[in-house]
Amino acid sequence: MASSRPYSSVLFLVIAMLFIVTFSHVAEAHGRQQKLRPQDCKPRCAYRCSATSHKKPCKFFCEKCCATCLCVPPGVYGHKETCPCYNNWKTQEGKPKCP
User: Signal peptide position in this chain (predicted)?
Assistant: First the structure.
């Protein structure tokens, strides 16, 4: 019975390492979403605005917001909470500036 104990510790360590490696990639991907390079804005905004019927103004404001915030929320709508600068930038009327 004493001989099975070292194997269970090794198994636990292997599982713990797999867990850490798995979630380190998730954290890395999330970090990349937050800080884009200026040249990444155009393709991200093209995707962000792909589902709207007002593509030209959507892309214009998205690229302007991305240039300032270096962030574009994931998806074609919503999820602005992932980019606080993008989410909090308002027009003079208090409406969201960024699509």
Answer: 1-29
| Other C-beta atoms lying within 10 Å of the C-beta of residue 73 | 21
Beta strands in 1-99 (DSSP E): none
Print burial letters for 35-69: b (CB count within 10 Å at least 16), e (below 16). Answer: ebeeeebeebbeebbeeeeeeeebbebbbebbeeb
Q: What's the predicted TM-score (pTM) here? A: 0.64
Q: How far apart are the C-alpha atoms of 49 and 75, rounded to whole Å?
A: 9
Binned at pLDDT 50, 70 and 90, residue 5 comes out as: low
Q: Per-residue pLDDT tens for 29-80?
A: 444 455 889 999 999 999 999 999 999 999 999 999 999 999 999 999 999 9
Helix axes 55-69, 41-48, angle to 10 degrees: 140
